[in-house]
Amino acid sequence: MQEPTFLILTALAAQPLHGYGVIQAVRELSGGDVVLRAGTLYGALDRLTEQGLVAVDREEAVDGRLRRYYRLTDAGAAALAGQVERLRRHAGVAEARLKLRTT
Amino acid sequence: MSAGPLERRYRRLLWAYPRTYRRRHGAEILTTLLAMAEPGQSRPAAADAVDLIRGGLRQRFRLPVGRPVLILAAVLCAVIGGAFGAAAGSWAGVQTFADLPDEAALSVVAGRAAAGGAEQARSRDGSPWYGESAARHYTVPPSWDAAAAGRALAAQGWRVGPISDPGGAAWQQNEDGTQTRLNMRAGDLRAERDGLLLQVRGFVVAEQNGSVSVVVWPRVTAVFLPLIAAGALLGLVAGWLVAAALLRRHAARAPAGLRLAARVLTGAALLMLALPAWALYANMVRAFRHAGADGLVFTVHSAFTAGRWFPFGPSTLVLVLTLGGLLTGAVAAVLAAIARPAPRAQDVTA
User: Fold this and answer.
1) What is the pLDDT of residues B247-293, one digit of tens each?
2) Does A21 reach chain B within 8 Å, measured CB to CB?
3) Cα–Cα distance between A19 and A67 in angstroms, integer?
4) How far apart are CA B99 and CA B249, in angstroms?
5) Residue B310 DSSP SS3
6) How far apart (Å, rounded) are the C-alpha atoms in residues B261 and B329?
7) Is the Cα torsion angle B116, B121, B125, B128 positive or negative in sign?
8) Using only C-alpha atoms, what is the Rg of chain A?
9) Do B349 and A59 touch (CB under 8 A)?
10) Whether the Cβ atoms of residue B255 and residue B314 lie closer than 8 Å to each other
11) In this predicted model, what pLDDT tens digit does every residue of A12-66 receive, in sequence order?
């Protein structure tokens, strides 16, 4: 799972968000390191929807503009949990190996 | 809300996306883009523009996931596109060749090479493998001589190569069943002028009349093979894009009957076009393999010339299958277009 995908799933973990909401959430989550652009975001959302990890939650019209909210599906939550577990394991291993380092 | 300059520019960038995608997601992408915009911003940031174009291209090239048979169809479509692209490149390349001399001009040239011989036959044709050439055949008196023919051509400004012996022998059948070898002179020479190549080949047996044939064809230009390669490449990409576009439509919700008909016809079109594509690729291989040789020019699109490219079917098989395949494909595309669902109400703003 690539970092933008991971961050998008993380952004949607707590509550459904619309596109701009995802971009803001990802920026905050990454401490400003990752600023998704619209083309990248919607490419990822489209792919994740097709894979069943994300689904359209609802649509709203604000000032005549369409906002579509996306939510994490159960499959998406499971995929994210699996990735969290993998990252935790890798982080632990890396930490342990660093302690063994002889200078 | 009236569209400001920024919105207009974003809308224009969204044209990078396929129409079906734009209908589904155009409005919400625009909402997001405008929400991200700085106050007073009137044109998209370069990085955003690149990102949208890249995103749009990716959507145009991608296939629906998890359908191996569709991937196979798309690959086939791309391969067929490459073959027809190579044929188009080959045709364009041949347009840069020197024109064959008309009959009057050829009479002057060939008449000199055949040194006063009597014309027996003339032909002007191509084949399913190589491009057009013009030929003359003469009966010549026993005095015909290849070196003299070469001098006559040189006097007309042809650059004449060395004379070679084409080989062969002549035999006379005797009444007692034995054979006597006859004294035969033969000569073969090549000449070149104004992008045209000329071959003169003569045989004179003992003191009887001999025969001379003169063949002229254009020399390959430097852009010929690059145009074939570029055509093949463009055709591959175009074939893939057509397949991806058709599959997007097939994937959309549509009446099952229409969808099935479109699929069956698309499959039939691909099958029909596969055979011409095979012939075109084989011709392309010949064109590259014989590159540099100055014999008759192997062209890709010559496969459409009537002749027996395949050892079965009518002599126009390649052309007929091509037209049939394209027609069937067009009908399938129209069906797919009909099968495309109407845009949903909230997307009309896109």
Assistant:
1) 776 655 567 787 788 889 988 999 999 999 999 999 999 999 988 77
2) no
3) 8
4) 46
5) coil
6) 12
7) negative
8) 16
9) no
10) no
11) 999 999 999 999 999 999 998 888 999 999 999 988 998 899 999 999 888 888 8
Give me the residue from A43, A51, A67 closest to B58, CB to CB. Answer: A43
- AA identity, residue B174: N
Distance in angstroms (rounded) separating the CA atoms of residues B41 and B7:
10
Distance CA B287, CA B301 (A): 11
Within 8 A by CB and 6+ apart from B39, the residues are none
3-state SS assignment for residue B291: coil
A40 touches chain B (CB under 8 A): yes
Q: Of chain B residues 37-66, which have a CB less than 8 A from chain A?
A: 47-48, 51-56, 58-59, 64-65
Using CA atoms, how far apart are residues A41 and A45, in angstroms rounded to an integer? 6
Give the per-residue pLDDT at B347. Answer: 45
Backbone phi and psi for residue B261, each to the nearest 5 degrees, phi listed first: -60, -45
Q: Report how far residue B314's alpha carbon sits from residue B241's, in angstroms, rounded to the nearest whole number.
A: 32
pTM for this prediction: 0.77
Could you report the per-residue pLDDT of A83-95, keeping only the tens digit for each? Answer: 999 999 999 999 9
Which residue in B56, B283, B28, B237 sits closest to A58, CA to CA? Answer: B28
Q: Judge whether A95 is closer than 8 Å to chain B, CB to CB.
A: no
In sequence order, what are the beta bridge partners of A54?
A72
Contacts of B28-31 with C-beta under 8 Å, sequence gap 24+, read B28/A18, B28/A19, B28/A42, B28/A66, B28/A67, B28/A68, B29/A19, B29/A38, B29/A42, B30/A65, B30/B350, B31/A18, B31/A19, B31/A20, B31/A62, B31/A65, B31/A66, B31/A67
- For residues B34 and B171, what is the distance between their CA atoms, to the nearest angstrom? 91
Considering the four listed CATH numbers 1.10.10.10, 2.60.40.10, 3.30.1330.60, 3.30.360.10, the one that applies to the domain covering A3-100 is 1.10.10.10
What end-to-end distance do the CA atoms of chain A give, in Å?
33
Q: Give the model's pLDDT for residue A56.
A: 93
Count Cβ atoms below 10 Å from residue B341 Cβ, excluding itself: 12
